[in-house]
Automatic annotation (TrEMBL), chain A:
Lineage, broadest ranks: Bacteria, Bacillati, Actinomycetota, Actinomycetes, Micromonosporales
Biological source species: Paractinoplanes pyxinae
Transmembrane feature ranges: 29-49, 56-75, 115-135, 142-160, 166-184, 216-239, 615-634
Residues annotated as domain Transglutaminase-like: 474-543
Top-level taxon in the UniProt lineage: Bacteria
Protein name: DUF3488 and transglutaminase-like domain-containing protein
Polar residues bias locations: 596-606
TrEMBL record, chain B:
InterPro entries named among the record's database cross-references: ATPase_AAA-3, CbbQ/NirQ/NorQ/GpvN, ChlI/MoxR_AAA_lid, P-loop_NTPase
CDD domains: AAA
Domain ChlI/MoxR AAA lid: 245-317
Originating organism: Paractinoplanes pyxinae
Full protein name: MoxR family ATPase
SUPFAM superfamilies: P-loop containing nucleoside triphosphate hydrolases
Span of domain ATPase AAA-3: 52-181
One Pfam family matching this protein: AAA_3
Compositionally skewed regions (Polar residues) per UniProt: 341-350
Region listing for Disordered, in residue ranges: 324-350
Length: 813, 350
């Protein structure tokens, strides 16, 4: 087997090793099988193409074709047989979209989703092709490290805190293998290895000639490892903010069945999507329905809120009826029909709270009694249509106030009140709940705290919360959106000893005929509080005015409403009735950040610090860059002004009227000479700026004439150029310099004339990046470095004299 | 010999008079030599620079005519020597003859005892005879039999030679060539001038109609005016740099002498004065470098094999050599690292 072919196989192997980091992304190893197959086939194609002595482009083409065929085979649309058809590509596009959604919806590790697998296989296949071409065709295996590193960047982007190290080592080994193979191949092609002492050296024996290279390598590695330790890190700063998505989940004990959606990431993903897409169409016989919910986050750790995996029984077993299990409340039974669009694909079914029966669903859906969510590990909500019965409970504050205190040993309390210790939060809770007796009153006190009056501001552009300290800091900055509000209220309730969790779902949506249309803009999070005898009661602390389709109940009215604040007119739509109140149909898409800015104009903008700090930094950096770019132009302008400026002449040192050659040295002549020289220097710089060559062997007269012919100066500029030449000539060589010449005017004329005859690029460069300034700097730099070399050489000579080696006999051998 | 010496040339002239006088001479010569303004001007410049002129060209282009026209335009003593192989040094310098009446040796002055000496076909004489000119050209005196005779002022030798025909000629030795301030070539006339010459010469010899428009005294004053022309330090530096460059050029075996520096600057002064300036420009030096320097240098064997003429070598040096400049002021000289000294009258430390 020839070296090239073997190298191709090594490239394929190295690519597979470099793909190791993907293992931390996926839950199972389906991807590995598919990647093995793909990379193997690509390598086979490459070997085949090389055996047939295809040219380089044909090798690349054959590999691309094989990748395409493999993708078609692995991810068929069902309408083709191995040969891709237009529908295949349509299918691929769907897979891409699906992968995009999945990345928004799932935390790592993800299950085997077709879209994600497709993207993975496509990516690894492309990397395999790139590595093969770089290594075998271009013979630049070092460059092949870049695409291999790109694979590793995937887990780096996903895991913010702790990136798995082992996969990186595996990938690095693959890369080293590639480098070693390539070098061995080079040496073998060269022929024998020799060390310089006439002895053949085995391939694996380290050559003494390479000692310098090894030393350099060691120094490079040490420097690469040590230097970053010295540099201040930015973890927790910019980087973590940029690679935010998906943190806060993925930890915790449950890494078992199926993918767990990172609900917070999913929520912010939905809300921050650029376009509005319809997700759910719902028809209910209830006049003012509450929120659709599909998931809860019930674990509060230092990593923020997270979800436990739901577990429960098949919905075929029937759902519990709250009327039998809870004490109070006025119940009314309703029925709703739901049509979910293909844009909402998740394993959690959006239903109303207290659903008692589901129809029209395929098998495979389960109900978690604790979380009260309907979920599936296999099924997706995509394009699902179903109907369900639910019970709507209506509470009054008086009823809820009757709720007994929970026993602290109750498992519900234990599970739903754990929270990180944060003295500031505890102090705030203690202050707010002071004097409150019932759980409900305490919760109300906490709930009422989140009012515009208290300085809370809704802003969708806030970063999603990543850990508990960010929830706590929300209580300080008071700027956030539903995530922050819901999480903060839940934490505070937990701090007060009341079980609380964050529920996720959709607000009511917009009425369209007799049904509601729910879009991604309706995605929402709110708090659920457990009250004994009543179960989980929803409290939505997010300002109703800022949430499309928000709803309030009279046990948890809109806290901003009675206040004549700036939001009053908008909030008026959310008048609480006796029933769960209607929220603003009239509020127009208030989730947009610009709107929230308007509505909270009066509030403190202390919370803008984080965001605008980054923005300021970026703007500052850009401004600095612009300023740096403009420095040459500025320098040029200043120089010109300096030369144009009429400076008072210094008195000549020697005032002699009978000097050699009868030179008359007076203040006037000195000044006239200085003026002529300054004007000439300026003319030289202008010529350089306009890319007219300067010839140091030319006299001023000839230079001026050449300028006129080269730059095709006519009339005025030509006269001006001649005048400048004459002035400089006389200043240099004549007894008396030219006095009273309009040199500044002449300069301006010449410059204009030059600008007229130059092309636009030259003109622009003359203004923005004057070559004269750049050349001066370059020459200055060269001179300085030459001086440095001279000085260091002298120093070395001095040191060499002091060296004791000089005294050794036979040092020259 | 009671004529004024070179050191008492007379007072300088106002520039108007200078211009009138010089243009009269030039116009006069151009009646005979048509379409050769630059050559005529250079010849006059050499006269005003107190130098000697070597006119080198093929036969029949008017070398001798130029020399004679210049001589005739100035009302002063003119002698013509036809250099032949059997010419003797004493024919040039003069000889002491025994006077039987006075019973003493009497000095009979030779051909050089004139203001203008036209030496025709100088390379046809033997080196022995050519060498007779050495003393008189440089020192402007003749020593015969232990007696030194001063020559008149102005004194100028205008020699012609034919560079093509080498049979029976003796090339000028280095020392002799170095004494000539400038070597000029006549070049063929353009067709129009040649036509005018045909119609003119057909009737009569224009040379015979030529009237003198200046005399020796005026020439002395003209020379004094030229001496007064200002050469700035930068210009002098440049002259030195030019001559030094010929000594350092790799293609040249023997560079130009210090005498040539002096003559270069003098001729430049004359040219500047002829152009109405009272100061010398580097442009003048550049224009004069080839006529003044080229005939003095000896190229290396390599350069000769490559058929590089000395004219071309000097022209290239002129083209390459940067002007003396203030390094603080002008950063654009990157060709020749050495910074030449600057004009001391330029403001420093800006």
């Amino acid at each position: 087997m020839s070296g090239r072919r073997r190298l191709g196989l090594v490239a394929a192997g190295a690519t597979l090793l470099a793909a190791a980091p993907i293992s931390s992304i996926f839950d199972s190893y389906t991807w590995l099988m598919q990647c093995l197959l793909t990379v193997g086939l690509i390598a086979g194609a490459a070997v085949g193409a090389r055996t047939l002595r295809f040219p380089a482009w044909a090798q690349a083409l054959s590999m691309i074709v094989v990748l395409l065929l493999t993708l078609t085979w692995l991810f068929p649309s069902g309408e083709e047989f191995l040969i891709p058809t237009p529908s295949t590509f349509g299918h691929f596009a769907d897979l891409f979209t699906q992968a995009g959604q999945d990345t928004r919806s799932y935390g790592v590790p993800v299950p085997d989703r077709d879209g994600l697998l497709f993207v993975t296989v496509l990516g690894i296949g492309s990397v395999a092709i790139a590595v093969d071409l770089l290594t075998v065709v271009a013979r630049k295996p070092a460059l092949a490290g870049l695409p291999m590193l790109a694979i590793y960047s995937v887990p780096v982007a996903v895991y913010v805190d702790s990136v798995p190290v082992l996969p990186f080592i595996v990938g690095a080994i693959g890369f080293l293998w590639l480098l070693v193979s390539d070098n061995i191949d080079r040496v073998r092609r060269f022929g024998r290895r020799f060390t310089g002492d006439g002895r053949d050296v085995d391939v694996w024996e380290p050559s003494p000639l390479a000692a310098a290279g090894r030393r350099l390598g060691v120094i490079g590695v040490v420097a690469a490892v040590l230097l970053p330790l010295l540099v201040p890190t930015i973890s927790g700063g910019l980087l973590s903010q940029l690679t935010q998505s998906g943190s806060g989940v993925g930890v915790g004990p449950g890494n078992g069945t199926g993918g767990r959606i990172n609900l917070f990431a999913s929520l912010s993903g939905q809300l921050s999507q650029a376009d509005e897409v319809d997700l759910v169409r719902l028809k209910t016989d209830e006049s003012t329905p509450y929120y659709l919910r599909f998931g809860v986050a019930d674990q509060l750790t230092t990593n923020g809120f997270g979800s436990t995996n739901p577990s429960g029984e098949n919905i075929a077993q029937g759902l519990p009826d709250p009327r039998t299990s809870t004490a109070g409340g006025a119940f009314a039974e309703h029925r709703a029909e739901v049509q979910i669009s293909d844009k909402l694909a998740q394993g959690m079914l959006p239903v109303y709270q207290n659903t008692i029966g589901l129809d029209g669903l395929e098998n495979g859906w389960f109900f978690d009694d604790n979380q009260q969510v309907v979920y599936s590990n296999r099924r997706s909500t995509k394009d699902v249509a179903f109907s369900f019965d639910y019970v709507r409970a209506r509470y009054t504050p008086q009823m809820l106030r009757q709720a007994e205190r929970l026993n602290p040993d109750d498992p519900i309390v234990k599970r739903n009140t754990s929270h990180p210790d944060d003295p500031t939060v505890s102090a705030l809770v203690t202050r707010l709940t002071a004097g409150k007796q019932s759980d409900y009153d305490k919760v109300r006190a906490l709930y009422d705290h989140f009012s515009t009056k208290n300085g809370f501001t809704y802003r969708l552009s806030t970063q999603p919360i990543a850990n508990s300290s960010e929830i706590a800091s929300f209580l300080q900055t008071k700027v956030g959106y539903c995530q922050q509000y819901a999480a903060a209220l839940a934490w505070m309730a937990r701090d007060a000893g009341i079980p609380a969790r964050v529920a996720f779902g959709f607000t009511r949506g917009e009425k369209d005929g007799d049904s509601y249309v729910i879009t991604n803009r309706n995605a929402h999070a709110w708090t659920e509080i457990y009250l004994k005898g009543f179960g989980w009661i929803p409290f939505d602390a997010t300002p109703a005015a800022n949430v499309a389709g928000a709803a309030r109940s009279d046990y948890a009215p809109d806290v901003d409403l009675p206040e004549p604040t700036s939001t009053a007119s908008e909030g008026a739509a959310a008048v609480p009735d006796a029933d769960p109140s209607a929220a603003a149909g009239g509020v127009e898409r208030p989730d947009r950040p610009d709107f929230s800015d308007q509505s909270t104009a009066g509030s403190a903008d202390s919370g803008t610090g984080v965001l605008s700090g980054t923005a300021f930094l970026i703007i500052g950096l850009i401004a600095l860059l612009l300023v740096l770019l403009l420095v040459p132009a500025l320098r040029r302008v200043l120089l010109r002004r300096h030369r144009h400026a009429v400076t008072a002449p210094k008195a000549p040192k020697v005032r002699s009227l009978d000097g050699p050659g009868d030179i008359v040295v007076t203040a006037e002549t000195v000044k006239a000479r200085a003026d002529a020289h300054a004007a000439w220097d300026e003319l030289m710089d202008t010529m350089v700026d306009f890319r007219i060559p300067i010839d140091p062997s030319e006299t001023p007269r000839v230079t001026a004439q050449r300028l006129i012919t080269d730059a095709v100066l006519l009339e005025e500029p030509a006269t001006a150029a001649t005048l400048l030449g004459t002035a400089e000539e006389k200043a240099r060589y004549a007894r008396k310099p030219l006095e009273g010449g309009e040199l500044t005017v002449a300069l301006t004329r010449v410059r204009k004339g030059l600008a007229r005859s130059a092309n636009r690029r030259t003109r622009l460069a003359a203004v923005l990046m004057p070559p004269s300034v750049l050349m001066r700097w370059r020459l200055g730099l060269a001179e300085a470095s030459a001086r440095l070399v001279t000085v260091s050489g002298r120093l070395r000579d001095v040191l060499a004299k002091a060296s004791p080696r000089r005294l050794l006999p036979h040092r020259g051998r | 010999m009671t004529t004024p010496t070179w050191d008492e040339p007379g007072g300088p002239m106002p520039s108007e008079d200078f211009r009138a006088a010089t243009s009269a001479i030039m116009t006069n010569i151009e009646q005979v030599i048509e379409g050769k303004g630059a050559t005529v001007r250079l010849a006059l410049a050499v006269l005003l620079a107190e130098g000697h002129l070597l006119i080198e060209d093929v036969p029949g282009v008017g070398k001798t005519k130029l020399a004679k026209a210049l001589a005739r335009s100035i009302d002063c003593s003119v002698r013509r020597i036809q250099f032949t192989p059997d010419l003797l040094p004493s024919d040039v310098t003069g000889v002491s003859v025994y006077n039987q009446e006075q019973r003493d040796f009497e000095f009979k002055p030779g051909a050089v005892f004139a203001n203008l000496v036209v030496g025709d076909e100088i390379n046809r004489a033997s080196p022995k005879t050519q060498s007779a000119l050495l003393e008189c050209m440089e020192e402007r005196q003749v020593t015969v039999d232990g007696t030194t005779y001063e020559l008149q002022a102005p004194f100028m030798v205008i020699a012609t030679q034919n560079p093509i025909e080498m049979e029976g000629t003796y090339p000028l030795p280095e020392a002799q060539r170095d004494r000539f301030t400038a070597r000029i070539a006549m070049g063929y006339p353009d067709p129009r001038a040649e036509l005018a010459m045909l119609s003119g010469h057909g009737a009569h010899d224009p040379l015979s109609d030529l009237r003198a428009v200046a005399d020796a005294a005026m020439v002395r004053r003209l020379i004094a005016t030229v001496r007064d022309v200002h050469a700035a330090d930068a210009v002098q530096q440049y002259a030195i740099a030019l001559v030094t460059a010929t000594r350092e050029a790799p293609e040249i075996r023997l560079g130009a002498s210090p005498r040539s520096t002096l003559q270069l600057l003098r001729t430049a002064k004359a040219v500047a004065a002829l152009e109405g300036r009272d100061y010398v420009l580097p442009d003048d030096l550049q224009a004069l470098a080839v006529p003044v320097l080229a005939h003095r240098i000896i190229p290396t064997a390599d350069a000769q094999l490559n058929r590089r003429t000395t004219d071309a070598i000097v022209a290239e040096i002129v083209h390459r050599l940067p002007l003396p400049h203030d390094r603080n002021r002008s950063p654009y000289d990157t060709r020749n690292g050495g910074g030449a000294p600057t004009n001391q009258y330029e403001p420093r430390g800006r």
